[in-house]
Amino acid sequence: MNNKVLAGTVLTSAIILSAFSNTTPAHALEKTISHTVYTIEQEMDSVINGPEQLPHESLADAAEIGESRDIHNLTFTLKKVTAAQETDASQPEDVVTLYYTVKNTSDTPYYAGQSATIYYNGKTADAYALASDKSATIKPGETAEVSQSFRLNSSIGQFEVEIGPLFDLNGQKALYKVSRHE
Question: In this structure, are residues 159 and 120 in contact, taking their beta carbons and an 8 Å threshold?
Answer without folding.
Answer: yes
